Every structure is written in C-alpha cells, then in structure tokens.
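FORM 12-B: Structure-to-Sequence Request
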C-alpha cells in the first residue's frame, strides 16, 4: 500500500471508530473531506514526474513542469556528440587537477539511476583555479555523450559543487572488457527498487585507481542531463573509457535498461582539449 493511501486509511478508520464509540462526537462527510484534503496537501509529493520513455520522456520534459523549460529552450544542453576532428586544442587552458582518495560511498536507487553519495567532502577537482567538491556519482546506460557518433555501453558522472553552488561534472565512458574490481562491491549491492534509505558499502571505493591511466579530457560548457536541464555546468569528459565486464553491464541494465538522454545540438559551442 502506498504511503499516502495508508495515511488516508488510518485517518478514515480513526474517524469511523470515533463515530461508533462516541455518540456525541459526530463527524460529517464534509469534515472528512476537508481532513482528507489537508492530508493530501501534507503528504503529496509535488516533485514533477519525468521519465526516459513515454509521455513524460525526454522530448516532453519541458512540458512536465514549467521549471523544466531549459530542456527545450536551452542553447547549451548536454549531452552532445563530440566530433573529435572539430575539437579545438587550447594549450593555454588551465589543467584540471583531480584530488581523489578511497571513499565510503552509500548507494541509493532514485528511480532514474543508481546514485553513490559521498558525504566525506574530501574529494575535489580544481577547474580553472576553482575548487569543486564531489557530491555524488551516478550512471547511465547507454552512454549519454558520444564520440564521433559512437555511444558506449555506459557512462558515469562524478558530480562536484563549489561554494557558490556551481557544478562541474567529470564524465567517464564505460566499455565492455574485464571486470571492474574497484566497483565490484558497489555492483554486488545495486538496489533493484527505489530506496528510502541509503545502502552503505563495507569497503571504500578506490577513486584514485578507478579512472583510466590516460586522463586526456574534453571540455565544454553544458547542462544537467536530467530535468531541470539547468545550464552553466562545466563538463570534463574523459576521452578514454574504463572497462566493465558484460556481467556488470547487464546487472545495471536489469534495473535500468535505458536511462540516457539523447544528444543535444552543440550550437555555437566549442569543445576543447589541452593537447
């Protein structure tokens, strides 16, 4: 029984019991209706419902809620298909400094993806001299970004935030290969249903040895790839993928067969790399 319906049931049962046991205390149908309305207002989850398919799928996100307008009207949307021949080499661009250490993540299923939350506040990246702290990591299948029109098996996003609330996302592509030992425990505890509480991991995830050795990256200005599709996100996409076994890919796919936004127009944006 859903939480909201359960609350309604308890209230109505209580009212009926009061009416039966206390003759002088009567409750009219109008009063019951008012109480139900008040409970509905208190328990209703007003978060707009969006999806990756159907009537609330990506092409309709802007119609789901007025706060999602950027999903249709934005000019710097993510993800994109990156044509490597058109990437601009900018040797003067500041490097991205990655400062990660083994981290005790907790897992949640938010009905859109598996998200690994980091409450340590010790993992950071520095982008153009600005420090961003890792907040969470989540996954998409298939990859959202494409390289020369090619999608990968999966994609992960390490989401960081600075003191002003601005976001920088370090994206990594995932291809089929050998088992990924760093994510082995996380994958053994993937929550199949929506979680009310985070699932703790027994072992820390070794972020230092998680990313590919070749950390060549592509940079561009973009947006969140989920509603509200807010822009102003600094994207750093690692060009070389990490490996996951077919079993690991299928394990995620059994929960989320497809949770990727289609590529968006690049418009006038440039994608850059340092070398």
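FORM 12-B RESPONSE
SEQUENCE OUT:
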């Amino acid at each position: 029984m859903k939480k909201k319906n359960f609350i309604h049931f308890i209230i109505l049962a209580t009212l009926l019991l009061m009416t039966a046991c206390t003759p002088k205390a009567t409750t009219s149908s109008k009063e019951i209706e008012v109480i139900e309305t008040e409970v509905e207002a208190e328990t209703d989850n007003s978060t707009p419902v969006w999806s990756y398919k159907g009537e609330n799928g990506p092409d309709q996100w802007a119609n789901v809620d007025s706060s999602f307008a950027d999903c249709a009207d934005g000019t710097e949307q993510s993800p994109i298909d990156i044509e490597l021949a058109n990437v601009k080499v900018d040797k003067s661009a500041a490097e991205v400094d990655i400062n990660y250490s083994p981290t005790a993540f907790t897992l949640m299923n938010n009905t859109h993806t598996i998200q690994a939350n980091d409450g340590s506040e010790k993992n950071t990246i520095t982008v153009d001299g600005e420090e961003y702290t890792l907040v969470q990591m989540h996954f998409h299948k298939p990859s959202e970004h494409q390289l020369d029109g090619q999608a990968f098996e999966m994609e992960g996003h390490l989401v960081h935030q600075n003191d002003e609330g601005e976001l920088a996302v370090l994206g990594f592509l995932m291809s089929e290969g050998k088992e990924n030992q760093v994510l082995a425990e996380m994958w053994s505890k993937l929550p199949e249903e929506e979680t009310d509480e985070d699932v703790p991991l027994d072992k820390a995830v070794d972020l230092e040895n998680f990313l590919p050795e070749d950390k060549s990256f592509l940079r561009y200005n973009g947006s969140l790839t989920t509603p509200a599709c807010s822009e102003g996100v600094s994207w750093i996409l690692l060009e070389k993928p990490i490996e996951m076994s077919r079993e690991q890919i299928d394990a995620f796919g059994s929960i989320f067969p497809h949770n990727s936004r289609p590529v968006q127009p690049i418009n006038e944006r440039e994608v850059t790399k340092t070398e």
